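New to this. Help decode the following:
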Amino acid sequence: MRFISFVLIAVTMIGGTLFLGGCDGEAIRIGFSGPLSGEYSDLGVDGRNGVALALDEVNGEGGIAGRSLELLEADDGNNPEEALRADRSLVERGVVAIIGHMTSSQSIAALPFLAEERVVMLSPTSSTPTLTGRNDTFFRIYPSTDQEAVALAEFAYRVVGVRRFCVIWDKENSAFANPFQSFFRETLESLGGEIVNSLFYSSRQDHTISEILERLLVCDAEALLMVASARDSAKIVQHVRERRPEWELFSSGWAGTTAFPTYAGRYAEGVYLTSSFYVDEEDPEYREFAEKYQNRYGRQPSFASVQGYEAMRFLAAALRTTGGRAEGLARALTEVRDFEGIYGPIELDEFGDVKTDIYIMRVQRGGLEPVDRKQPTR
């Protein structure tokens, strides 16, 4: 049995100083809840690191209403029960908002409790359409799954020219993975394509990936869609490249962390992925952020790092409106205007959902490069 590890960062925090001179009064507590251990820890750790970096910057600018920010973090174990326990702990410690969760299933599991407590959840990466268009305490700066799945299916059919797909998806994050593969199927079939076979596996049981792949690799298909974490996707592409090198490989944006090319190596070359962002690495603002992140954590940021960073900055903008109070924060988040993020402007609609362009990326020379761009469908 795994235990949740709760880390209260009081005087110092990972790689930097939390309390800064010039901030008076009791600190404003911000929670972070995500997978800090286990198979999805790359997503959670990168997201947490981005949050911590942005929080320190806000404190360096004088905090909010003359008060410093304090980060409390909890490991949700990428498990619904642990996610709920994690958020209960954070609420008991008096957080004004929680940045998280990083996966859709955990956001869904924790939302009823947070809604009852009237505590805002601002997710950097949850994209399940189940939470779209709802008047609740859930907010996100990542687009809904359906937009990415539709864009990827259209690109695969019209640009790459593949018609017959097999699909493998992780049931342990079914709130994201199942809708993604369903919207992909619906779009592909509407264009004249076909899903030959679609099978799920359990990331909690490592052996199931190889078992499922043995059944998929004999399919009469031209391509494989993966809806899996970065590490699992790395395992999958190695199997497929060795057995079916002629297949085109496609992935949801879930695999778009630095862990994917790191673990997959040369096998990742040529894989197509969706993304809600793209930035020229020579862009001055991104280079400044990447340098600060590299200096602090000893590695380059992933999309989760940036999303965590942006979520904290966006939350700070809303907190400046409320004077650092939880009261009125939900409305303040939907009223933030002219927020320029690293990947572009961020603005939420009345339900707390973000609209943004969708990019199709391809792994080339160990990095991700854009090959297409789609406007949001709604």
User: Anything to note?
Assistant: Confidence is low (pLDDT under 50) at residues 1-22. DSSP finds eleven helices and 17 strands in the chain.
